[in-house]
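Quick one: structure tokens for this chain, please?
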Amino acid sequence: MLMNDRFFKENFEKTAKLTKREREIIGLLSQGMSNNEIAAFSYTSIHTVHKHRQHIKEKLGTQSFYDLLQFTEVFDLTNKENNT
């Protein structure tokens, strides 16, 4: 719990920079959806999904899927409200 609090405080500003669409993409990724599935679900091209993922990685400074999942857990980015 303390590690999550620390992570939250250290990364709040990074997460606040994410757009609504980027939050949606993170939520869908955390649910196990592939890039192709996300593109179909969000009515965008696969290229657009790749660009969103690239921007997410840059904004959050993540290098791995595990790092991304940590953000989804601590900042509740899997919340249904983020995916609408």
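The chain has a mean pLDDT of 89.
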